[in-house]
Amino acid sequence: MFEETADDDIWKNQEKWIIKSWNFYENCRAHILALEDGTEIHMLAERRYPLIRETLEKMMELRLTAKSEGEALELATSKAKCLCKLKHWLISRRKRCNFGNEISKSIYGMVTCLDTSSGVQETKMKKHKGDKTSGAYDHKVGSSRAKRSRNVETVEEALLPDVHHEFLEWRGCSREAKSRYNSRLATLLPKLIYLPQIVDWQLLHKIGCRDEIDQMLKISLKEAQTEEEVFFSVAWVRAFNIREPIYPELCREFYATYEFDKVCADNKLQSKKIISFKLGGRAHSLTLLEFARRLGLYHADEIEEEGFDTYFQGGLRSDENFNAREYWERISLDRDLHLSRSSITSVRFPILRVLHKMITYGLCQRTTGYEKIQRNDLWLLSMFEDRHQNGYANMAWVITKWMKRKGAGSQKDSQICCGQFISKIARKSRVLTEEIIRSLSIPVYYRDLDRTTLRELINSEDRLIPDIQVDDVQRVAAQRAPRVQRALMHDLYERMGSMEIRQEAIEKMEYR
User: Fold this and answer.
1) CA distances from 24 to 20, 97, 230, 351 (A)
2) CA–CA separation, 330 vs 328, rounded Å?
């Protein structure tokens, strides 16, 4: 047992520790760290020890092992309680120890890598030959086994009542649905909330591009022969103007239960319920039109117009028929399009670059690679540039698909995106009452798409830089390495045969 003071030599060499195992014993209330050099460090749970950040992260990567069924359940519960106490202790010392959000993220990340320790151990023990509840005695102990298995909780389930809002405790659902919900929630807990950058229309007006962008976003549906306007939509403008504070509890509750059915015919978009989620402790099942109404994209008087059904059902839902390479050659300085390397900085028209920033920072909310061009970006830019004359996108479908693919994120370091959309839905669903807002944590606020983000597009006179003409600059073509020609054995045999034939012909000519 080492002293908890930092003067002890054992604490000064923590960077060199190679931790082999981490065990916690409830009976004696002690943590034991076993190092590879044979050293065992015993630490009482009630005392504080000078552990550094690297040591704590190594501990988070380890698992407690149990040797019996009783220890499995006891250790799983004890570990959950221990992690809660450790989390609160780290948060209280965050400023003094200069941990920032790294440790909190590592601790919450522990949830994602822990298995149901007690359940796994119980399953393994039932397969053991000495298990008394196996074989012929199954019919006698079946009810008691079922009761015992219901009491076995995962670490995620043990942590939820202690550290999270009541909205995140999904009650009244089946055990399978609860397990799937807890798994999703455990993945969401360590993720940070993305701060969207909403367009500042006053700044766009100052640099001289507000009116043009406003016209590019509006959709006017006209008759093919008479050119008479059938429907007029400002859904894109409204989407870019969603300004709502973001509540972390609502985001995690929404994405832990969010389901989106992509298989839906055009004439069923207003009747088939393809979107489901839980928000404010209540389950919601909506059609695409109802979901768009909750986002504030369409008003009631617009839906009653004669041309709305034609507009809503005729919007494009994907970019599968879009020729990205042809469009890129028309707007870019580069001849070749490489979606993994091409940058928006190669686009000759600054107005399109401003729109691209509005999309990546505000709507799809890309966390990395802001300048990298993607196929979906070019698809939207092409429709904006053409004023939607050659087709328009179904705004509600695009946002719904973004929220499913980009919202929670599947990568390890991804962030929770589209939070302002969730707050908008919650407000329209009458979830954000004053009482509920007081029970939620401090909201995260959006930022403006300010001058700093657009600095490379603004000249010294605070105006948008002019377009780059093709005649003024030579197009850049990517130099490709020559392709190595790999000869097959069949080709070699043919060449050898040709050489033999030519050799025979030469010999005959010499003989003559």
Assistant:
1) 14, 25, 70, 60
2) 5
